[in-house]
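The record is passed on directly below:
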Amino acid sequence: MAANLFGKLASDTLGLSDIGKIIAPSDFDKVDGDDYIMHEDGEKIFFVIKSKSDEYVFTNYGLLHVDGASAMSKKRTVKRHDFCYETVSGVTLETAGTIDADVEIKFHFNEMPFSIDVDKKQLEILKDLYKALLEISRIQRMNYQRVQDGAEGLKMANDAISRSSITGDAAQVVKNLTDFNFNWMVDLRKTHNNRDFSETFKKYINN
């Protein structure tokens, strides 16, 4: 235990630890992840955490993770997690103890877990990201429930129609019903599937 503690303190002192730093908005254009942002499509950076080997770039469209194998390697893997395709869950924030040098924010994009250590001096700023991700998770859950309710309502309507007598061209009636069902579900998902969470980030993060 004492040896592990000594090793951690030595690592922090020598600057070898992988504790992330929150990057100021004025420096967003200097991070590696900025090169992969879809600026042409209106994507905007709202929050960046950078460690020696990784960058976590939070945008209005999702998370861009620039994944480094190690601090010594220049090799990077760029991974995207979009809000319109993946849901955020399990958002937690762990504050630091007396001797800890870092705090930790944890969350999932679908089944992919993330655990990011951040300098404890930046806890107050990290709280803003915590609140934004928590709100995004809440909105996504609410949207999912609305889509489920809409689909259930459509099913009930179809069941009622199936018990009724069909008049006219049966094939055309079936085609019209199929087209209606398809368009209903497309519109439902489009209405209740946020791609852009700019307003949520603006609400909680002061850039």
Summary: The two ends are 41 Å apart (CA to CA). The first helix runs from residue 2 to 13.
